[in-house]
Design a protein that fits this description.
The protein is α/β, with parallel strands linked by helices. 37% of the residues lie in helices and 18% in strands. The strands form three sheets. A six-stranded parallel β-sheet has the order 5-7-8-9-10-11. The chain has a three-stranded parallel β-sheet with strand order 3-4-6.
Length: 248
């Protein structure tokens, strides 16, 4: 068991399994996330204090926010890994891949989350994109597909999400939406999807220590109230283990 101190309320939460963050921008100076190694270390510290013991780094790829090549991601990952380990965090490299209207020709196998077959993909929240077609094509290529912050795509209907689930696609929402700290419509949509058991993962999508810090412990507590503790563990730990480590 992992014992976690909530510094806001000085309460102790005992979790049977520690949390796993599969979507964040902790890597410094590569996109719109962390601005420095020092900020990355502080983000790791904040995550660790909340009970996060495994982090998959997901810098933006193929996005307007992308600033560097994949080679730089790998170099930064190798610098960050021992810093995270000093805080008891297992660190893995992944990516958040932007998919525009047409499916881009990328080396997706080099962008998976750790050694898994899973890829984290995002779409435009403004321009309607054929998400089902793209997800199906990537599934057909042998990837486990996770759609990032699915609550942002207003053009994606609940029926669409049910169809995505039926073909084996996984859906992720942000912790900020769970705790109603982000866009009100995103929060409303995310909580509705969770209540209807359509969500597989909660992740931080944290970018910095101020406006977008890690909030997984708050999300865990809110999920316990919104659903139950079993669902909280499932969305913050169990599903991550089952999908990302099942081939290891």
């Amino acid at each position: 068991m992992a014992m976690v101190m909530d510094t806001d309320t000085d309460t102790i939460i005992v979790m049977k399994k520690a949390m796993i963050d599969i979507h964040n921008h902790f890597m410094p100076e590569v996109d719109d996330g962390s601005k420095s190694i020092e900020m990355s270390q502080e983000l790791f510290k904040l995550a660790s204090e909340q009970g996060v013991t495994t982090i998959f780094l997901t810098p933006h790829v193929n996005s307007s926010e992308t600033k560097v090549s994949r080679d730089i991601h790998i170099k930064q990952y190798n610098i960050l890994k021992p810093l995270a380990q000093n805080l008891g965090i297992d660190l893995y490299l992944g990516a958040e891949i932007y998919i525009p209207y047409r499916l881009p020709d990328l080396e997706y196998s080099a962008l998976t989350l750790g050694d898994s077959k899973a890829i984290l993909i995002e779409f435009s929240p403004y321009m309607e994109t054929p998400i089902l077609d793209h997800a199906y094509n990537l599934k057909h290529r042998g990837f486990e597909v996770i759609i990032a912050h699915v609550e942002r795509y207003n053009y994606l209907t609940v029926e669409d999400m049910i169809e995505l689930k039926q073909i084996g696609v996984y859906l992720q929402v942000n912790a900020s939406s769970v705790i109603k700290a982000g866009h009100p419509e995103h929060a409303k949509r995310a909580r509705m999807l969770i209540k209807h058991d359509l969500i597989d993962f909660i992740a931080s999508d944290s970018h910095n220590t101020t406006s977008r810090p890690p909030r997984l412990l708050q999300a865990y507590k809110e999920l316990c109230k919104l659903k139950n503790e079993s669902t909280a563990k499932q969305l913050l730990s169990d599903n991550q283990i089952n999908v990302l480590f099942k081939h290891n």
